[in-house]
Amino acid sequence: MKTMKIIALLLAGIFLFVGCAGMSDTQKRTGTGVAAGAAAGAVVGSFYGSAGAGAAIGAAVGGAGGYVYDQHVKSKEKAYKEGEQAGKQSSTSK
Asked: What is the pTM assigned to this prediction?
């Protein structure tokens, strides 16, 4: 019975990583936020008698946080590319 649980956990882990293969960065970051938020929310909710409600609230907050983080990373990448392009134009004009 114990080996079946280990096999099930390993398969779940494999499916989790394979399932993310075709996802965009935004989807990966938001999904990670949802998963982490749901886990944290379930733990906190279990202390107050409602793990399910805690998981749902945590998933929503985590998803929003993951999306906001993704937008922040994208804005940093855009600023870097614009600065790099401006530097190249500046060095070629001299």
From this structure: 0.71
